[in-house]
Hints:
33% helix
Amino acid sequence: MMGLRWAPIFNMRTKIQNICKYCKNNYFGYGKIYCSKSCRAKDTGVGHGTKTGKHVLCHICKKEIWRKGYSLKQHKLFFCSNRCHAIFKKTLDMSWCTGPKQWNWKGGISFLGKKLDKQIRKIKKYINWRENIYKRNNYICKNCQKRGGKLNADHFPIPFSMIMKNYNIKNLEEALNCKALWDVNNGRTLCEPCHLEIGWRGSHLN
C-alpha cells in the first residue's frame, strides 16, 4: 500500500481592496487597516522600528516626515529629500570652508591645477611628448627594466606639479608655451605597477 503524500499548503489569501483607516485612500492588501507604515505611524504614534521618534516638518517644503529618536537628538533641521537639502545648502554662506578662508588655500593653484592637469594630458602635444619618452627609453620601464606592457610617462627629475608651480601656469596657453613642460630630457618611462608605486606619490623626489 502506497503511503499518503502530503500536498504543500499554499497561502490562499488574495489581495482585496481596502480603505486606509488614516488617509481614507483605497489600497490593495491582505486585510490590513493601513495602506503604509507611514499612515500606521501617524495614526498610532509608533512605527518605523522605534517608539522614540516623531513626525517633523521638512525645513524647505514643510512636508510631514518621520524621524527616529537618535536623528532628533543629532539634528535640528530635517529634510524630506536630497533635493530639499540641496536647496537649503545653496542658502548657506560656505566661504568659511572654501576659497581664501579655507586652511589649505594656495591661491587657487591646487583647484585650478587639477582641472588644468586633465586638459593638458588630453592635448596632442602631451601625447607626442609621452610617445617620445617611450621611444627614447625603447619602451623599457626605468624602474624594473621590463619592456612593453602598459606604460606611463611622467616628468622626472622635476615633477609635473613642481613645473606648474614654479612657472605659475594658470591656463592651457601658458602650459603650451612652457618649454620645461615639454622637455624630453625631463621624463621617464614606467610600467603601470611601478608608476603606481613610486610615481604619483612623490617618492621619486627622494
